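User: Okay, second chain of the day. Same drill as before: sequence in, structure tokens out.
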Amino acid sequence: MTLQNDPIYSIERIRKCEHLACEQFHISSHDLMERAGRAVYDFLLHRFPRVKKIAVCCGGGNNGGDGYVLARLLHEHGLNVTVWQVGSHNHLPIEAKYALDKCKKIGVSIHLFTPATDLQPSDLIVDALCGIGITQPLRVDMIAMIEKMHVTALPIVAIDIPSGICADTGQVLGRAVQAIATVTFIGLKMGLLTGAGVAYAGEIVCDDLQLPQDLFSQVQPIAEKIQIKSYQHYLKPRPRDWHKGLSGHVLVVGGDVGFSGAARMAAEAALRVGCGLVTVATRLELATVLNVSCPEIMCQGIDDPTQLEPLLMRADVVILGPGLGQSNWAKSLWESVCRSQLPLVVDADGLNILAPLHQSRENWILTPHPGEAARLLNQETRDIQQNRLLAVQTIQKRFGGVCVLKGAGSLIATPDLLPAVCDKGNPGMATAGMGDILSGVIGGLLAQNIPLGDAAKLGVYLHAMAGDLAAKQGERGMLATHLLPYLRRLVNEID
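Assistant: Same drill. Structure tokens below.
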């Protein structure tokens, strides 16, 4: 099996790849279907070597055709295979009809799905109901089959994409298959990596169907998955004569009454990824408390925005927003910081203050969660989640700089490169303070002279990986601060 894990393609561009395969490289549609079915066959034999009884649920399109190829191969291998057809198969595509006829010819057991269908005698179910082409809510019979599949509690392997997931957005189209694994073809799809699709795809295996590299050079991906090897050079060991001034100085502006912990977490996270100096500008009455809780952080109480000026002069990067609030005090600090020319990481209330202002800047990184993104675009949160890629690109174009849209499958949009998606992280990270840690990580990297886009991508990746390491002790009850020791470990080991 040939894996191609980096590029991410839209439905339209996958179709272009298929067209080029046929027209330029003389690989027939039938051959592509045969390769797809064999890719799933190889995966099943490797991943589930003890499985003997398999139910293959086939729809009326080419995804069903992939399922018929798979069923034939499994039958020829001596496994007990049953095919369940959903909907009319009177008008199958030519290739799928050919694959079905070959199944019938060798005696594969094929039945029409009804409400009385029992999938329970099987050990495993394969979802070949509907592939990447579907963008509308599923039909009633498809939903009934999916519900029947889930009732069995058997492991489900999806072909190309879990049925009911939009391949371009990850949106659930009414109901979707909950897969333990998905074998996808030609290239990754955004719907597998971000939004709701992340929760349905399970393990993702990508097979390029042995298509030539000359073909891929003609089709531009819509995004790419973050690969740490692209950023390892930023984390090389430092010379013996290194000093803290060479590692950058971050200024964190935030920490209003009741939210000082946010500023503290951002500050310590910046230190943990190798920043040399961190100062927190906060409420006067909180400065001492913050300094005691983490003596490595310098703290300055601020009553008036003019007091920020000397701090801004010493800083290389400003993290604006953790625990800032939206009071007059907060807004005056926000305005003072934005008058400077320093690179900024803007998070939390820094984004909420920005939302109605529609300012644009080339040297800031905005890090909204879906709710903050909705405020920036004057939309509802559900609108953001329905097309996360479009949302992050729209924010970047409207406000400039770099945008990180947080959530399952965090996305990073830059002005001149492909959007990037992070496939690391876990549900345990859905807890208070994780965004503050992320802003500190990105700010700390930015202060070390890493360019904006790379600092955002590397920061998101390190943050997610630290979360995965912390989650080994359990996702429930995980705190944002649990990531801090792992961040230090990662920036020292990742090269």
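The two ends are 28 Å apart (CA to CA).

User: Thanks, on to the next one.
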